[in-house]
Amino acid sequence: MKVVVNIKLKDGVLDPQGKASLHALSSIGFDNVLDARIGKQIVLELEENDKVKAKQSVTKMCEELLANTVIEDYDIEL
Amino acid sequence: MNKSQKISVIVFPGTNCEHDTKYAFDMLGQDVELVWYEEETLPSDTYLVVIPGGFSYGDYLRAGSIAKFAPIMKDVIRFANSGGYVLGICNGFQVLLESGLLPGAMKRNQNVHFISKHHFLKVESNKNKFLSELENGDLLNIPIAHAEGNYYIDDKGLGSLIENGQVVLTYVDKNGNDLNPNGAVNNIAGISNVNKNVFGLMPHPERAMEEILGSSDGVKMLEGFIR
Fold it and tell me: Which UniProt key words apply to this protein (chain B) (predicted)?
């Protein structure tokens, strides 16, 4: 089954890439953008049909490797 | 350290400062061994482990995040937890953060650029082995070269770093006034763990060993470990 992991910097943690993109957008005329935050999306193809097991396994992957929980939050879409 | 002990410099795929680091400690008369990441144990007479700069595993996913699972890291973590000295320089600092041996995390530099230049540092705490040859307030001219040196720790973590004297180096200008190149919380350039045996810093002391290369201020830093 396919599992999508979205990772983003925690609210309150300044996002340098988001800020740079926000400024770039504003400098080319998009002055209606209030904020921009950049994250990453990891698409996993799992050999697993049980949603509960898949979620448990991907949560462990996020905690151990995919996200740095000091600065990042993640959510898992099954 | 005694004469029979050595300094082990860890080499991951993508590490690129191991020879500079070895050269720096060779200059100080030390026995230095490069240790390949696939090894499972450190040389038994290791006194100091250095994780040098570079781009371990291409900095894929996050800087330092994959290196923490390399075979040798299990023994590095054991060594650190049993009180052995560990120094992480630049990418090595990032590996120590990702491994949980040091608190906090690294973000992209505030200006999103790779920054490579000489920068002044101020000694904030010399009550540790690493900076024991220096005085608090001493200024050091040391190169920095990184894209992810924007050190982050939450307010509570920052409070305990300060309280325990774990902030060892900060970024300043040549007069000692605050000057922050990368957005790091409280201008932090280097920290230690609570027990003061694990150290991480973004600047490269091993690149400041000879005046002909712009500065020899790195000598006084690295000497701390061998006096």
Answer: ATP-binding, Cytoplasm, Glutamine amidotransferase, Hydrolase, Ligase, Nucleotide-binding, Purine biosynthesis, Transferase
